[in-house]
Design a protein that fits this description.
With 174 residues, this protein is an alpha/beta fold. The protein has 3 helices and 11 strands; from the N terminus they run βββββββαβαββαβ. The chain has 2 domains: 8-68, Carboxypeptidase-like, regulatory domain (Immunoglobulin-like, Sandwich); 87-173, 3-Layer(aba) Sandwich (Oxidized Rhodanese, domain 1), CATH 3.40.250.10. InterPro entries: PEGA, Rhodanese-like_dom, Rhodanese-like_dom_sf.
Length: 174
Protein backbone atom coordinates (compact mmCIF):
# COMPACT_ATOMS: atom_id res chain seq x y z
CA UNK A 1 0.00 0.00 0.00
CA UNK A 2 1.38 3.41 -1.01
CA UNK A 3 0.93 6.15 1.55
CA UNK A 4 -0.38 9.44 0.15
CA UNK A 5 0.56 12.76 1.61
CA UNK A 6 -2.27 14.55 3.40
CA UNK A 7 -3.81 17.52 1.59
CA UNK A 8 -5.36 20.72 2.92
CA UNK A 9 -8.35 22.47 1.39
CA UNK A 10 -7.55 26.06 0.38
CA UNK A 11 -10.59 28.23 -0.26
CA UNK A 12 -9.91 31.32 -2.41
CA UNK A 13 -12.43 34.16 -2.84
CA UNK A 14 -12.23 37.72 -4.18
CA UNK A 15 -14.42 40.78 -4.67
CA UNK A 16 -14.41 40.54 -8.50
CA UNK A 17 -15.64 38.11 -11.12
CA UNK A 18 -13.74 36.58 -14.04
CA UNK A 19 -10.35 36.98 -12.39
CA UNK A 20 -7.40 34.65 -12.93
CA UNK A 21 -5.98 32.67 -10.01
CA UNK A 22 -2.46 31.23 -10.04
CA UNK A 23 -1.11 28.99 -7.29
CA UNK A 24 2.63 28.38 -7.32
CA UNK A 25 2.74 29.88 -10.83
CA UNK A 26 0.10 27.53 -12.28
CA UNK A 27 -3.28 28.79 -13.51
CA UNK A 28 -6.09 27.26 -11.44
CA UNK A 29 -9.24 29.09 -12.61
CA UNK A 30 -11.34 31.92 -11.25
CA UNK A 31 -12.56 32.66 -7.70
CA UNK A 32 -14.48 31.14 -5.76
CA UNK A 33 -12.11 28.32 -5.89
CA UNK A 34 -11.50 25.38 -3.55
CA UNK A 35 -8.23 23.50 -4.04
CA UNK A 36 -6.68 20.52 -2.30
CA UNK A 37 -2.97 21.28 -1.81
CA UNK A 38 -0.07 19.85 0.12
CA UNK A 39 0.46 21.47 3.53
CA UNK A 40 3.08 24.21 3.59
CA UNK A 41 3.84 27.49 1.90
CA UNK A 42 2.15 28.40 -1.41
CA UNK A 43 2.27 31.47 -3.61
CA UNK A 44 -1.15 32.81 -4.70
CA UNK A 45 -1.58 35.47 -7.36
CA UNK A 46 -4.93 36.87 -8.55
CA UNK A 47 -5.14 39.04 -11.66
CA UNK A 48 -7.89 40.91 -13.46
CA UNK A 49 -7.55 43.48 -16.21
CA UNK A 50 -8.05 46.99 -14.82
CA UNK A 51 -7.17 45.90 -11.26
CA UNK A 52 -3.95 45.80 -9.28
CA UNK A 53 -2.56 42.26 -8.97
CA UNK A 54 -3.11 40.60 -5.59
CA UNK A 55 -0.27 38.40 -4.32
CA UNK A 56 0.11 36.51 -1.08
CA UNK A 57 2.27 33.76 0.34
CA UNK A 58 0.00 31.48 2.33
CA UNK A 59 1.06 28.80 4.80
CA UNK A 60 -1.64 26.12 4.74
CA UNK A 61 -0.57 24.89 8.16
CA UNK A 62 -1.72 28.24 9.59
CA UNK A 63 -4.43 29.46 7.22
CA UNK A 64 -6.76 27.71 4.77
CA UNK A 65 -9.00 30.55 3.54
CA UNK A 66 -7.88 33.48 1.42
CA UNK A 67 -10.20 36.41 0.74
CA UNK A 68 -8.55 38.80 -1.71
CA UNK A 69 -9.67 42.37 -2.24
CA UNK A 70 -8.60 43.58 -5.67
CA UNK A 71 -8.39 47.34 -6.17
CA UNK A 72 -9.10 49.16 -9.40
CA UNK A 73 -6.09 50.70 -11.07
CA UNK A 74 -6.14 54.47 -11.16
CA UNK A 75 -4.63 55.41 -14.47
CA UNK A 76 -4.56 58.04 -17.10
CA UNK A 77 -5.97 57.43 -20.52
CA UNK A 78 -4.21 54.49 -22.02
CA UNK A 79 -7.00 53.92 -24.53
CA UNK A 80 -6.17 54.43 -28.18
CA UNK A 81 -7.81 57.54 -29.59
CA UNK A 82 -10.95 56.96 -31.69
CA UNK A 83 -11.54 53.59 -30.04
CA UNK A 84 -14.87 51.97 -29.28
CA UNK A 85 -15.16 51.32 -25.56
CA UNK A 86 -17.50 48.98 -23.73
CA UNK A 87 -19.81 49.72 -20.85
CA UNK A 88 -17.16 48.42 -18.42
CA UNK A 89 -14.68 51.13 -19.45
CA UNK A 90 -17.44 53.77 -19.51
CA UNK A 91 -18.36 52.79 -15.95
CA UNK A 92 -14.71 53.22 -14.94
CA UNK A 93 -14.79 56.78 -16.30
CA UNK A 94 -18.03 57.53 -14.44
CA UNK A 95 -16.56 56.12 -11.21
CA UNK A 96 -13.44 58.26 -11.60
CA UNK A 97 -10.85 55.60 -12.49
CA UNK A 98 -9.67 57.62 -15.48
CA UNK A 99 -8.89 61.27 -16.00
CA UNK A 100 -11.37 63.98 -16.93
CA UNK A 101 -13.97 63.15 -19.56
CA UNK A 102 -17.11 64.51 -21.18
CA UNK A 103 -19.84 62.03 -22.08
CA UNK A 104 -21.80 63.19 -25.13
CA UNK A 105 -25.21 61.78 -26.05
CA UNK A 106 -25.36 62.09 -29.86
CA UNK A 107 -29.07 61.22 -30.09
CA UNK A 108 -31.73 63.82 -30.72
CA UNK A 109 -32.56 65.90 -27.64
CA UNK A 110 -36.06 64.38 -27.31
CA UNK A 111 -34.46 60.95 -26.81
CA UNK A 112 -31.95 62.41 -24.35
CA UNK A 113 -34.86 63.89 -22.38
CA UNK A 114 -36.55 60.46 -22.24
CA UNK A 115 -33.47 59.02 -20.56
CA UNK A 116 -29.69 59.20 -20.70
CA UNK A 117 -26.54 57.99 -18.98
CA UNK A 118 -25.75 59.97 -15.82
CA UNK A 119 -23.17 62.75 -16.39
CA UNK A 120 -23.94 62.88 -20.16
CA UNK A 121 -24.60 66.12 -21.99
CA UNK A 122 -26.80 66.32 -25.06
CA UNK A 123 -25.15 67.35 -28.31
CA UNK A 124 -27.23 65.75 -31.07
CA UNK A 125 -25.17 64.86 -34.10
CA UNK A 126 -27.49 66.97 -36.24
CA UNK A 127 -26.47 70.01 -34.15
CA UNK A 128 -22.87 69.07 -33.48
CA UNK A 129 -21.22 71.85 -35.52
CA UNK A 130 -23.24 74.57 -33.78
CA UNK A 131 -22.46 73.17 -30.30
CA UNK A 132 -18.69 72.71 -30.38
CA UNK A 133 -18.45 75.65 -27.93
CA UNK A 134 -19.91 73.25 -25.29
CA UNK A 135 -16.87 70.99 -25.60
CA UNK A 136 -13.99 71.39 -23.13
CA UNK A 137 -11.07 73.60 -24.04
CA UNK A 138 -8.64 71.31 -22.19
CA UNK A 139 -7.14 69.01 -24.81
CA UNK A 140 -6.45 66.37 -22.12
CA UNK A 141 -10.18 65.86 -21.53
CA UNK A 142 -11.49 62.67 -23.13
CA UNK A 143 -14.64 62.96 -25.25
CA UNK A 144 -16.91 59.90 -25.20
CA UNK A 145 -19.77 59.83 -27.71
CA UNK A 146 -22.72 57.46 -27.48
CA UNK A 147 -26.10 56.86 -29.09
CA UNK A 148 -28.37 53.79 -29.23
CA UNK A 149 -25.79 51.01 -29.67
CA UNK A 150 -22.39 50.47 -31.29
CA UNK A 151 -23.83 49.73 -34.75
CA UNK A 152 -26.16 52.74 -34.69
CA UNK A 153 -25.60 55.19 -37.57
CA UNK A 154 -25.12 58.01 -35.07
CA UNK A 155 -22.16 56.13 -33.60
CA UNK A 156 -20.46 56.16 -36.99
CA UNK A 157 -21.28 59.83 -37.52
CA UNK A 158 -20.16 60.69 -33.99
CA UNK A 159 -16.93 58.82 -34.60
CA UNK A 160 -16.36 60.94 -37.71
CA UNK A 161 -16.98 64.08 -35.66
CA UNK A 162 -14.60 62.69 -33.04
CA UNK A 163 -11.92 62.13 -35.67
CA UNK A 164 -12.25 65.76 -36.71
CA UNK A 165 -11.92 66.78 -33.06
CA UNK A 166 -8.76 64.64 -32.76
CA UNK A 167 -7.28 66.55 -35.69
CA UNK A 168 -7.84 69.60 -33.51
CA UNK A 169 -6.02 67.90 -30.61
CA UNK A 170 -8.81 66.33 -28.53
CA UNK A 171 -8.95 62.66 -27.58
CA UNK A 172 -12.27 60.95 -28.41
CA UNK A 173 -13.89 57.56 -27.84
CA UNK A 174 -17.23 56.08 -28.87
Amino acid sequence: MVATKPKVLLSIRSNVYNDRVYVDGEYKGSTGLDLWLAPGLHSVKIEKDGYNTYEEQIDLQKKSRLIAKLHRQKHQNNLPANSIIGTDILLEFIRGAHSEYVLIDAREESHYNEGHIPTAISIPFSQFDSNTHRLPKDKNTVLIFYCWHETCGLSTQSAQAAKQMVKNGLECHG
